[in-house]
Every structure is written in structure tokens, then in C-alpha cells.
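With this grant's support, we have settled on a layout for protein records. A representative record follows, to show the layout.
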Amino acid sequence: MERLPHPVTGALMTSPATPGDGWPGDAATSDTPRANSAIDVRRLAADAPDLTELSARLTVCRACPRLVAWRKECAHVKKAAYADQPYWGRPVAGFGDTKPWLLAFGLAPAANGGNRTGRNFTGDPSAAWLFEALHRAGLATLPTSDNAGDGQRLTGVRLLNPLRCAPPKNKPTPAELSTCAPWVARELELVLPAARVVLCLGAIGWSAALTALANAGVDIPRPRPKFGHGTEATVAGLHLLGCYHPSPHNTYTGRLTHQMFDEIITRAMQLADQT
């Protein structure tokens, strides 16, 4: 299998990345138990003792054949700009503080973002907007998030995706979301004791966060709160806060500006102080 130099470390890596081969942040090894079905996912997620082991297990998951095929295809048939780089090409773990007061939800890794770099919200235009805002608020070490191993650190913030693999056309099936759900449910069980605010990026992120919280045992009101930019809701003591997704469609058109994003982050910090 062809090996290419990692853009940060220079170490030669395969595409997709081989567990235990030294990819920055990879918690898995060749001995990490692997889920091959929805039943395996439920079992391996439920008994993961901590975030490190949970991350290791989910990043070698092969439970959804369509997603496995797509993430591998993206790792082999690369975007031209990254043709000289290895692709992660595996499920993507949560990233950030292990005791976060703020949880930020999107839907899934991007094919040439998280699926390439191995870290969620990393390596694409949306990531640039998110990390610039977090850095301005003093919550991120760097104003950029380009590659795993770049030294980026988050303080009090954890980034989550209910779906851990990049889906074709950014559209997962209901069955794929259901199969993947135990991974984020277990992650929420481990981090919710510290959490006070949930930042939902886009209507999809809002819906995904509510579903993930419900799967983690949080009582969600009926009818469910509706998404809007700046919308706030309280769910079992958690403050939910809506924000337009920092996608190029929203940022290039001015639907979401830097000032608007900064105001949302500031409001999240205010809500945390009230809890």
C-alpha cells in the first residue's frame, strides 16, 4: 500500500490510516476491538471505560458498509489539492476538553475535512470559521485547525458529531444514524456531568443534538424546541443555543458573519455563567 508523508509530522502513512501507525491523535492500535455490526457498536460503546478507549473503538468501526466504502474511496480518489497527502479515511472521534462546559454539535465529518485530517471540524472552510471564533473567545489555542498534530487545543469545549464517518453527498441514512448513535450516547454520558451549554450548528446540528441527548437518557420536551439562529432552549438543565452553520453557503453570502458568530460564543459563555 502506498505511503505518503503526513503534512505535520512527515511520517509516511497509508490511506486510510493504519491503527497504531502513528497518525497524530490516533488512540487505536491493531488490538483495538472492532465493531462490524450495530450489535457490536452497542456493546463496545456501552462498556468503553473512558473517552480514550471510546475514541479508539469508534475510529476502527466498520458497521456501516456504505460509509466504509465511501470513506475509503475518498481516501484513494483524493481531492486534487491533497493528492500528495495521506487521508485518515476512518471514523472520526470527538475532539476537545474531556470536561467541557460547552458541547458543539455538527452532523458528520466532511469528506475532505475530518475524513482527510482525522479530526472533526478540521481542514475545511467551516473549520476555519469555528476555530477563529473560539480563538477570539480564548477557548482555542490556535485560530486555525488544519491538521491533526498541529498543536490545536480547546479549553472547556468539545466538538461532537452524531455520525462519525463522512456520508456520500453529506446525507446519512436513518439506519446509519441509528447504528452510529451509541458512540455519541456513550460520549455524552462521559462528558455531560461538566456540560452546561450545547451549541448546535445549523438546523441539522440542532436536531442531531436533541436526538443524541435523548439517546443518552436526557429527557427531551415534547414538542421539541425548534431551531433558529440565536434560539435558546433549556433541556434538563442544559442550555441549547442555535447558530447558523459556518458553511461556505452561509458565510460567503453573509447570512453568518464573524460578528454574529462571536455574539453566539459570547452568549454561550454568559449562559454557562448563569448555570
